[in-house]
Amino acid sequence: MKEMQNDAALQEAALKAAASKREEDKLENEATVLEWETRYPDDPRMLVIRRIKQFLALSGSVDFNAKLVESGGRKRFVNPDYEAKPGEWKFCYRAGRESVAAPVNSHRCG
Description:
Blueprint: H1 2-6, H2 8-39, H3 44-60, E1 68-71, E2 74-77, H4 80-83, H5 87-95, H6 97-100
Antiparallel strand pairs: 1-2
């Protein structure tokens, strides 16, 4: 420890390493905050708009005429591309065209 305290080069290297680490931590924190603000904006309407757009894009790609086959006690899509779709896509398929494509006005609350 005494050698390090007396060695200016080692002290300078340690200070540079600490400053570099602080800068790295600062950049990582800024990126994390930016990601958080993007995912959860201050205005909740923006989040609702984004989620509705995501739903519309996903549900718009559902092939409600897709064929199913019985396999191992479960129904599976004949088309392997459909079988690989996310659960939300399959949920829209199971809900049916009428539910997914229902006019928004028919679902007013209150």
